[in-house]
Structure formats: C-alpha cells, structure tokens
Amino acid sequence: MSKSTKKFETEVQQLLDLVIHSLYSNKDIFLRELISNASDAVDKVLFESHQNAAVIEGEPEGKIKLITDKEAGTITIRDNGVGMTIEEVEKNIGTIAHSGTKAFLANLKEQNVAEHPELIGQFGVGFYASFMVADRVTLVTRRAGHDKAAGVRWESTGDGTYTVEEAAKETRGTEITLHLKEEMKEYLDEWKIRSIVRKYSDYVQYPIVMDVTRTEVPKGVNGEEIEGAGTIEKTVEETLNSMKAIWARSKSEVTEEEYEEFYKHVSHDFEKPLKTIHYSAEGVSEFKALLYLPAHKPFDLFMPERKKGVQLYVRRVFITDSCEQLIPDYLRFVKGVVDSSDLPLNVSREILQEDVQIKRIQKSLVGKIISTLAEMREKEADDYLAFYREFGQVLKEGVHFDYANREKLQDLLLFESTKTEAGTFTSLKEYVERMPEGQEEIYFITGTSRAALEQSPHLEIFRKKEYEVLFLTDPVDEWVVQGVTEYDGKKLKAVDRGDVIPATEEEKKEQEAKREEAAKQYGDLLSFVKEKLDARVKEVRLSSRLTDSACCLVADEHGLNANMERILRAMNQ
Ligand code: ADP
Ligand code: MG
C-alpha cells in the first residue's frame, strides 16, 4: 500500500478542535494520556501472551521509553505493547468507535465547553491531547506477533486529515513522536519530564525510562578522587517512576494526590473522585480493592456499550477491564481496581463468568460499597446528597434486582415529601420517625414533578391529618415501589390508588356509617354521573378523601395509577 491521505471522521475533527482550542488549561497531561495508552497496550500484550506466546517476540518485560531530541524539537513515547494493525489505527485513531460519543458531542456543542472542561474530561480525549503541544504527530506501530514488514506509519497535523502508509518496524508496539510547537519546547527538558511522570504516572506498573547524561568526576577503585582526571560524560537509562501498585500499598502510605491521580488514570475522568474506598479482604477470599465514587455521572451511564468501571488484576498483573461479574449493574458507576491473590494468571473470560472466587469478590465489594454509602449518609450528608443526585437513579435499580441487599438499599433511598422543602430529601427511616400517633402506613404519590403533585387533590386529607406523603417523581420510582412494598413493617401505599384513606379503625367505622347514609341521600346523583361518564370510569362513589375539591379521579387498588399509565403510554404499551 502506498501512502494515502484520509479525512478524520467529522466527530474526531470536532473533538480535536475542542481539545486544541478550549481545553486542558493543564497541558502537562498530554504525557499522562500517552503513557496511559502505552501502559494499556503493554497490559494487553502480556495478557495475550498467556494464550499466544508468539506475541512476546523475545521481550517478556513491558517497558515505556521517553526520548527527546532537542535539535528536532521532538519527544517520543515508545512502548513494547500490543501495537496496532492498519485497520486498528484507522479505527482507533481516525474515527470514534464509541457510538454514544456522537450524541455526547452534539450535546457538548450546546454547552460552553470552555467554562465546563469537566464535561469533556468525563469522556477522556486521550490520544488527541497530543495536539495541545504538537503541531505534527507521527505514530509508527506494529501489531505484536505480526510480520515485521506489516507496520504502519500514521501522521497528522491535526487539521482535518491524516496520512497512513506501510512501514517496516523491527520491534512490536507503538512509537509516537510529537513535533513540539515552538512555545512548547519546555517539554524537552529532562526535569520537566521527570516531574510530570512522578506526578501523574508514578504508579504505572512498567518502567518509564529515559536516557540521561550525567557528567561525573572519575573515581578510583576505592571511590577515591583522582587528581587531574577531569570529568567524563555518562549516559544511562534511568527509570522515572516508582511502579508501586497503589492499591497494594497500605492506606497510610498513599497520599490524597496519588489517589486522585490514579483515579483519573482508571476512570478517564478529569475531576477528583467524590469518595475513595481502599481495603483488603482476607479469609475465604483474598484480594485488594481500590474503588472510587465519581463526583459526576459519565455521559455513557445509561448506554449499554459503556466501558466497565472496575479492572481485574491477579497479583499485580492486569487481566481485564470488562469483567461483568465483578460489579452488579446497579453499581456500574464505581471505578477502580481489584487485585485477587486466588485466581490463576491465565484465567479466561469463560472461567471468569463461572468462577466462585469472582462471586465472592463481588459479594464483598457490594457489601463494602453499600456500607460506605450508608456511612456517608449518616456522617457526610452533603457528599451523600451530591452522590445521590448523580447516581440515585442507578442505585434504585438495585432495590429491584438485588434481593439479598434490598433492605440495606432501602435505607439509602431519598425522597422529597410534603414535609421536606423543595430540593431537600427524607429517608424512609426519618419518615417513620416522624409518623404521628395513629399513622400506620407510609404514603406516597407518583408523578412527573413535585410542583404538579403538590396540586393534587389526593393530598388534601393527608395534609389535614398532617400525614406525610412522599413525592416519587423519578420514572424508575414506579419500579422501586413495586420492589419496596414494606419498610420497617409498614406498608407503602399510593395515595391515588384504591381506598387509601388514613384513618383509625374507629374513624373508619364512623366514615362508613356516614357514607351509607349519604349514599342513600345522593344515590340518584351518583348513578346520574356514572351514566353521563359511561365507559370512562369504573365506578362513581362518595369519598371522604377530599376536603376542598369537589371530585377527583382514583385508580383501582390493583389497577395502574395515572403516572404509570403515562409511562406505559410513552413506551407505546
Ligand atoms: P482511550 O485510551 O480512552 O481508549 P485514546 O484516545 O487515548 O482513548 O486512545 C484511543 C485508542 O487508540 C485506544 O483505545 C487504543 O485502542 C489505541 N491506542 C492508543 N495508543 C496506543 C498505543 N500506544 N498502543 C496501542 N494502541 C493504542
Ligand atoms: Mg487513553
């Protein structure tokens, strides 16, 4: 194949423009992104080598090398990772494979990205960050295990087009050369590079090396100075990172900043995490976990093809970042790393699906996450609220699907109610604590907004009796109340379903007598109204639920309420 010039996919160009012009006030992170990709690529080749030894090509150790050339004004990031075929280069670098990205970008354009860099940070611009500092980027790569002649050379100036051509490459992996912009030459400086690597990539598991030249005074065999010997120049390859797996260290050894940087590495997020959970499990199952709750929801939270959040390692060796069994779907917002001491290194995807160790790990992780959330709710109410606003909707799925933890999850739910101010919440526990004498059930009403629900005539009698009613305004709440039918021995009742009238036994008898009498009195009127409304209602009856309004619509106790009907209608059911 000869050299050909191609256009970036439109979305890639938009993304490039965003990155170059409005983003990343901190340009240093281009190096973090490229090192992170290099480290991912080494993870992949080493994992692949368990099944296919041919990819090793005599280089069993992962390595990332940084090379600067002051004369050419370039910095090169070279890895011996998995590399890419020409198709992979075009797919991974020239287009955006992730289908949700297009919608996300369309959405971004409507917002002012310059003011909200975190929006794009959630998405992770990765490779394109190179164009913040370079006006030309050259990538040479060869897929591990493939023919040496089957390499690829890709180049772009970030202006909408790129070129690709075949290029022989001796060693496996990828080499990315940035031709630095005139004002970005500081990235050639050894100490600048050192400090960036220490700050952002210290925990990377493979050595990040650089050739450094030092002038030395020669010493004798016993280390004594030799008079008049002058100085000599020595070039050595030095490792810049400590390579300490951060999750394997004890909590007291890890600084806040290190936790943060590692979070950004695993999550592709731009912001600090909201909460860090670092623990190790011993006993039946031995593993270490470093988990994070993000501060904001990622754009692909509700997309089926989203990236999984928790990576699986076995004794420091990366295994996979898409183990579905590790974390249940309703906790899919959790990011981080789990490192097991029990699994074999050559564990395959099929084994992972069935593995009892994985099931044990999952159980422990779920328990730990739920207890952390419970503790946050008690002790860090503001943080919990911030979390709940972002991820409450997802957490609620657990009430439906995770039967074993349902009770604990119920305690994590928050709702607005007739007794909370708009925008503030109550838990079911607090609701029950506030229940006045005589109230035996928990009441709720479902609908699209608090403002609309506050007008509901169904609430009149509850207001009068000072019984609190929960406002369930999230569409998933309909499913929540199907799962949570009872809390603390008290039934949850919809105020607009069936004959739900808060009354003591005595009051009920009294009302019944009154109603019988009234029915006699108004019997003709009721049958008249029923006749007029004909097929549109099932029954017309006198009610004691209203105090101010003349009439209201009530659903059958076992029927669908108005909100559920609306949701089903919207779904075309
Ligand atoms: P992300 O890392 O979030 O997937 P990037 O923009 O950083 O996004 O990289 C895009 C893709 O390009 C990667 O997913 C990977 O498939 C490929 N890639 C980038 N750098 C390398 C590399 N050094 N070696 C192999 N593949 C790479
Ligand atoms: Mg990346």
UniProtKB/TrEMBL annotation:
<dbReference type="InterPro" id="IPR001404">
    <property type="entry name" value="Hsp90_fam"/>
</dbReference>
<dbReference type="InterPro" id="IPR037196">
    <property type="entry name" value="HSP90_C"/>
</dbReference>
<keyword id="KW-0067">ATP-binding</keyword>
<keyword id="KW-0547">Nucleotide-binding</keyword>
<keyword id="KW-0346">Stress response</keyword>
<dbReference type="InterPro" id="IPR019805">
    <property type="entry name" value="Heat_shock_protein_90_CS"/>
</dbReference>
<feature type="region of interest" description="A; substrate-binding">
    <location>
        <begin position="1"/>
        <end position="349"/>
    </location>
</feature>
<dbReference type="InterPro" id="IPR020568">
    <property type="entry name" value="Ribosomal_Su5_D2-typ_SF"/>
</dbReference>
<dbReference type="Pfam" id="PF13589">
    <property type="entry name" value="HATPase_c_3"/>
</dbReference>
<feature type="domain" description="Histidine kinase/HSP90-like ATPase">
    <location>
        <begin position="26"/>
        <end position="184"/>
    </location>
</feature>
<keyword id="KW-0143">Chaperone</keyword>
<dbReference type="Pfam" id="PF00183">
    <property type="entry name" value="HSP90"/>
</dbReference>
<comment type="function">
    <text>Molecular chaperone. Has ATPase activity.</text>
</comment>
<dbReference type="InterPro" id="IPR020575">
    <property type="entry name" value="Hsp90_N"/>
</dbReference>
<dbReference type="InterPro" id="IPR003594">
    <property type="entry name" value="HATPase_dom"/>
</dbReference>
<dbReference type="InterPro" id="IPR036890">
    <property type="entry name" value="HATPase_C_sf"/>
</dbReference>
<keyword id="KW-0963">Cytoplasm</keyword>
<comment type="subunit">
    <text>Homodimer.</text>
</comment>
<protein>
    <recommendedName>
        <fullName>Chaperone protein HtpG</fullName>
    </recommendedName>
</protein>
<comment type="similarity">
    <text>Belongs to the heat shock protein 90 family.</text>
</comment>
